[in-house]
């Protein structure tokens, strides 16, 4: 009897240990939406669920563009209410003057979806369909590109506007092994451990690609002394205020020191420029963000830290805005992590 009791206790302990390890691995692993993304040059991710209680009650009304309103009426999807997560892969295009411009997108959106209504809308607007591993991929024309869309779960949709179907095929392939907590792209595996815990939005890799113009990265009208292929790690956390952390991986320690000096000068110029701006909520937010910015170096890394007070963020959320995501037929919103709360997502073009 005693031996049987001991054996039962060992079995229970083993089961509890197994569950604990599984939970720990899931907690430490990247979000599933990000793990589904294909190989890429950069990754952007935002999780709106932790901020829903803060954002939604105070968010100003959004006026949709007419074509976007038609899409909303047909599918019942409202991004500011129904979108929970967005994971976006950035793909550098060999020809920046091609239909996709300098960067194409693949993304995984997670939220409250009416699968039947979305499938009906896709079937009505798709130019072609493809059956891949038991999933239907709808291809929709959009400004000289093809946007491919597939529903891969009751709450998940995959979208890609890359020139070939390889990327959306990769998403569907990864979905079949999504239960494995550390399956994901090479970029995600390399840098995920460096993303701060509890970050609701983050980016890694060549996340400056959408900001490039004539081979340079422009922010707030300033050309940064950084090549577009520079690797960044960026994150946003909410800890009573909005905390921004951006880390540049420089070629060497000396390059990091030089880069910090140059960026420090640019920030000083930007702070001076904001003094003459109109006192709108957006300009006040920019002014406070620049005022709080701190630069430092750590070996070959240049680290920027800044924060936005809660009151300023609330003022931004309460500022009326309009929603014009462009071609609603794309159903391909690409929200920027720092602005998803106050503007409608724009489709990849």
Task: Please explain how this structure is put together.
By secondary structure, the protein is an alpha+beta fold. The chain has eleven helices and 17 strands. A hairpin with a 2-residue loop joins β10 and β11. It is globular. 35% of the residues lie in helices and 29% in strands.
In short:
This protein is α+β, with helices and mostly antiparallel strands. It is built from eleven helices and 17 strands. It starts with a helix and ends in a 26-residue tail after the last strand.
What's the arrangement of secondary structure elements?
Blueprint: H1 2-28, H2 32-35, E1 42-47, H3 52-58, E2 62-64, H4 66-75, H5 79-82, E3 83-92, E4 103-111, H6 115-125, E5 128-132, E6 135-142, E7 145-153, E8 156-160, H7 166-175, H8 186-191, E9 201-205, E10 212-213, E11 216-219, E12 222-224, E13 231-238, E14 242-249, H9 253-274, H10 281-292, E15 294-298, E16 301-308, H11 310-317, E17 321-323
Parallel strand pairs: 2-17
Antiparallel strand pairs: 1-3, 1-9, 3-4, 4-8, 5-6, 6-7, 7-8, 9-13, 10-11, 11-12, 13-14, 14-16, 15-16
Strand content: 25-35%
> Are there runs of 5+ residues with pLDDT below 50, and where?
18-27, 323-349
* Rough outline: globular
Using DSSP, what is the number of strands?
A: 17
Give me the side-by-side strand order of the main sheet. Answer: 5-6-7-8-4-3-1-9-13-14-16-15
Rg to the nearest angstrom?
22 Å
Q: So how many helices?
A: 11
Q: What class would the helix/strand composition place it in?
A: alpha+beta
Order of helices and strands: HHEHEHHEEHEEEEHHEEEEEEHHEEHE
Q: Considering DSSP H and I runs of 4 or more, what fraction of the residues is helical?
A: 25-40%
- Note the gap between the termini: 70 Å
Mean pLDDT: 80
Oligomeric state of the chains in view = single chain
Could you give a short account of the major beta sheet? Answer: 12 strands, antiparallel
């Amino acid at each position: 009897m005693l031996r049987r009791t001991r054996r039962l206790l060992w079995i229970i302990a083993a089961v509890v240990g197994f569950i604990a390890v599984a939970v720990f691995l899931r907690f430490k692993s990247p979000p599933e939406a990000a793990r589904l993304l294909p190989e890429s040059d950069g990754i952007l991710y935002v999780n709106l669920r932790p901020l829903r209680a803060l954002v939604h009650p105070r968010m100003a009304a959004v006026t949709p563009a007419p074509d976007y309103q038609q899409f909303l009426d047909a599918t019942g999807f409202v991004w500011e209410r129904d979108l929970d997560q967005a994971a976006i892969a950035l793909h550098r295009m060999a020809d920046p003057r091609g239909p996709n411009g300098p960067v194409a997108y693949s993304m995984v959106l997670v939220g409250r979806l009416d699968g039947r209504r979305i499938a009906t809308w896709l079937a009505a607007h798709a130019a072609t369909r493809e059956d891949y591993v038991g999933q239907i991929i709808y291809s929709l024309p959009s400004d000289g590109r093809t946007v491919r869309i597939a529903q891969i779960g009751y709450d998940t949709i995959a979208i890609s506007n890359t020139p070939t179907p390889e990327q959306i095929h990769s998403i569907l392939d990864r979905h079949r092994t999504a239960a494995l907590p550390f399956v994901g792209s090479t970029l995600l595996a390399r840098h995920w451990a460096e993303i701060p815990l509890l970050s609701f939005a983050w980016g890694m890799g060549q996340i400056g690609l959408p900001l490039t113009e004539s081979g340079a990265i422009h922010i707030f009208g300033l050309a940064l002394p950084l090549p577009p292929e520079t690797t960044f790690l960026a994150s946003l956390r909410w800890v009573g205020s909005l905390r921004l952390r951006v880390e540049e991986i420089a070629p060497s320690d000396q390059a990091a020191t030089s880069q910090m000096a140059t960026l420090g000068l640019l920030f000083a110029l930007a702070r001076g420029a904001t003094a003459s701006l109109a006192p709108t909520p957006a300009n006040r937010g920019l002014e406070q963000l620049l005022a709080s910015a701190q630069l430092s170096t750590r070996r070959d890394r240049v680290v920027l830290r800044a924060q936005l007070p809660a009151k300023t963020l609330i003022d931004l959320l309460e500022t009326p805005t309009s929603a014009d995501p462009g071609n609603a037929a794309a159903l391909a919103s690409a929200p920027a992590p720092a602005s998803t709360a106050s503007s409608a997502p724009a489709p990849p073009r």
